[in-house]
Every structure is written in C-alpha cells, then in structure tokens.
Specification:
By secondary structure, this protein is of the alpha+beta class. The protein is built from ten helices and twelve strands.
C-alpha cells in the first residue's frame, strides 16, 4: 500500500470518526436537554399537586399566577397564602414525587413571617434514610408571604444516572477514537519500517548482482580451461549453477520490488510464442539436468504471434516450469500446450506433481505464501513465484486459472485475449 492510499484511508477514517463524534455530541446535548426538561416538568407537576392538596386541606384559594417560582436550577418556592404544617407538607411531597417517579434526595423549608427566615424542615433521602441537611440554608423570596421551598441537591447526579445509555455510548466512542489515533500512528510507524526494510533489501540485492555476475563469468572461464572429467570441473559447475540460481532469486526479488512500488512498465513487442516457450525450456537446462524430466510439447496454436513483454512472459514461463520441477515427488512429466478457443490464445502448463489442497489453493498467489510440500523436501524459494506471475498476467490484461488436486498434479492456464 503506497503512501497516497494510506493517507486517503486515514483521512476517510478520521472524517468518519469526526462526523460520528459531532453527531454523538449533538445527540448527548439533546438527551441532557430533554432530561432537564423532563425533570423540571416532574417537579412542577408534583409541586402544583402538593399546593392543591394543601389548599384543599386548609380551605384556601391558590393564587391564579406566580404559584411556583424557580429560584435556581435546583431550588423552587411555592406560594400557598396560608400557614403550612411541616408534617403535612413532607407527606404530600413524598406522595407526589413518588407518583411521577422522581426518586432523588430533596430538602424543604417553610417561610416564617415572624422571623422573616426560612425554617429548615428536613432532608429526605431517596433511600428513605434520614440524613443531616447538606445545604447551607434555603433562600427567602421577597415577594411572597406564605410559601415553602424545595431544593434538590442531587439534581445533576439524578439526571446523569438516568442518562447512562448515551454516556456509555459516548465513552465507547472516545475509546474507539483513541484506538483509531493509536492505530494510525502504529500504521504509519509500520509503514516507515516497511519502507526502510524494502530499501535495505533492494540495496542489498543490487549489491549482490555485480559479485554474482563476476562469479558466474569466472566460473565459466575456468570451466572452459579445465578438463571436463576433473574434480575441479565438477566444483566449477556447482559454483556456476548455484550462482545462476542465486542470481535468478535476486532478480525475482527486484522484480517483486518493482511491482510493489508500481514501477513495473511493460515493453510490448511482437514475437513468436512457440519460440519463446522453447527458449525458456532450454534456459532451464541446467536445472532440468538434475531431474529425469520429460517435456511434452503440444504447440497447437495456429497463430503463435503475440504482443507482450517478452522478458516478463519468459520469466512467467520460467517460474511455472520451476514450480512444476520443485513440487514433484517422482520424475517430472511436464506438458506445455498452446491452443486457440476462438476468443483467446491459451497457454497451459500441466505437471504430475504433488498437487495442492483445496484449502491452500486460494492462498498460493499471495506474496511469500508457500504450499506445504509434504514428503517433498529441500524445496527452496521465497514464495514469490506465483505472486509475480499473477501480477504480470494482470498487467497484460490476461486471465489465469489454477486447477489442482492433492496427489494429481497441477494445471496452470493463461488466457490471452486475441
């Protein structure tokens, strides 16, 4: 994943998180606003009913206006126009608050005309336990004569306890946002480390190319000057073959690095597909001579002229032949077929290898993935071959199918629109 893609993903995710946070804040604000209105409505309904019951009990008429005054967020006074009995007041308050499910602590007081002060009545706990007053006295109201006051010291706690659902979702959202920030920094850190690792591997493989070329040339020159049947010739052939093998692996790593960095560019040219197949098989002669390989050519395509990147297609064929050789428990029999089905030109490479389990078949084209070789040992490689093949096939706009069954070999088919 390149930097532009990462930043697009991060920006999109950040925008989504910000949008969700804005919606959540709006929803939380609306929820608290509704909870406050609901609390005030319950208080007004309850106090109005208490005033009406006291007026009926004492046979006095309630004022037509200014019955209930809200002095502060948690303090209310009720105008009665007559003396108030504290016992009756507490009874009616408990009754009406219970009717509207206003289960929170409250304290009340009654105004004394003689002393012109609020006489503290009681602190009533929602749990029913008597407690000492928590307030610093109830304020008087200068415009009224006979009234009582009620304060709710735990109003905020009561509202918060009834808003636990939006609060819980908000906390979860905060945790998710923090995790997103952490994940973003971790992704960027891993991306930086990945780029450093990739640069190191690229530099290392480039540094390998020159000494490997020197080793191959030196081995070839010395091999030409040595006796064919001597031990020195055998050692030189081993050096040459291993240098060729290592050079091909280095080249493959560089090709994959080009693909991952999107630097791969196809150099399209027109050539004979059959000739390329024969050249690719001949180029693998040094590897095939270590196996009793049977190559079967079924080159049936009437028009073998194709337009493709010759180098990359040669690498594709080499990779597929190399896999057919490596993953074989017996003497390899490889059948290479070309044909035409009307709309496509088809290349098919079939082997008699160990095959692939169905659960592994869907993973074999992933980078660095290697199929379990069972009883076939010493299978070398990086797990890059089929990944590279798939990338080159898709870059040409072709299609590739892999058909395999455990113990029955593998068929790789490339369809070239023609």
């Amino acid at each position: 994943m390149n930097n532009a893609t990462i930043w697009r993903v991060v920006f999109s995710a950040a925008l989504a998180i910000i949008t969700i946070c804005v919606v959540q804040v709006y929803w939380l604000k609306q929820s608290f606003s509704h909870a406050n209105r609901s609390f005030e409505e319950k208080v007004h309904i309850s106090l109005r009913n208490v005033a009406k019951e006291l007026s009926d009990l004492q046979r006095v008429q309630l004022p037509s206006y200014n019955l209930i005054s809200q002095v502060s967020d948690d303090y209310y006074v009720v105008n009665i126009r007559d003396a108030i009995d504290a016992a009756n007041l507490e009874y009616y308050l408990l009754k009406e608050f219970d009717q509207v499910s206003l289960n929170t602590d409250f304290e009340y007081g009654i105004y004394d005309c003689d002393t012109e002060q609020m006489v503290y009545g009681n602190y009533v706990s929602a749990s029913g336990q008597k407690q000492k007053p928590k307030g610093q006295g109830l304020a008087t109201h200068s415009d009224l004569v006979y009234y009582f006051g009620v304060r709710f010291p735990d109003r905020r706690g009561y509202i918060l306890s009834n808003e636990w659902i939006p609060i819980s979702f908000t906390l979860l959202l905060i945790i998710a946002a923090l995790f997103f920030v952490y994940a973003t920094f971790e992704i960027l850190r891993q991306k930086k480390l990945s780029e450093l690792q990739k640069d190191f591997v690229n530099n290392l493989t480039h540094e390998f190319k020159t000494p490997l070329s020197s080793i191959k040339v030196s081995a070839e020159v010395m091999l030409e000057r040595s006796r064919p049947d001597s031990k020195m010739s055998n050692y030189l052939r081993i050096i040459r073959d291993q240098a060729n093998h290592l050079s091909s692996q280095v080249e493959r790593v560089l090709q994959i690095a080009d693909i991952r960095s999107r630097k791969i560019q196809l150099n399209l040219e027109t050539f004979d597909l059959h000739e390329l197949i024969l050249e690719s098989c001949e180029g693998m002669g040094s590897i095939m001579k270590d196996h009793e390989v049977t190559l079967v050519y079924q080159l049936f395509a009437k028009d073998p002229i194709v337009s493709a990147d010759k180098l990359h297609l040669s690498n594709v064929l080499t990779n597929l032949l190399d896999n057919a050789l490596k993953y074989c428990a017996t003497d390899p029999i490889i059948t290479i077929t070309t044909a035409e089905d009307g709309r496509h030109r088809v290349i098919k490479i079939k082997d008699n290898g160990i095959g692939i389990d169905s659960d592994q078949l869907k993973h074999i084209e992933k980078q660095f993935y290697r199929v379990s070789t069972g009883n076939v040992h010493n299978v070398k490689g990086f797990g890059l071959g089929l990944y590279y093949v798939r990338q080159i096939v898709e870059a040409h706009g072709w299609k590739m199918d892999i058909i395999s069954n455990k113990g029955h070999g593998t068929v790789v088919q490339i369809l070239m629109p023609g």
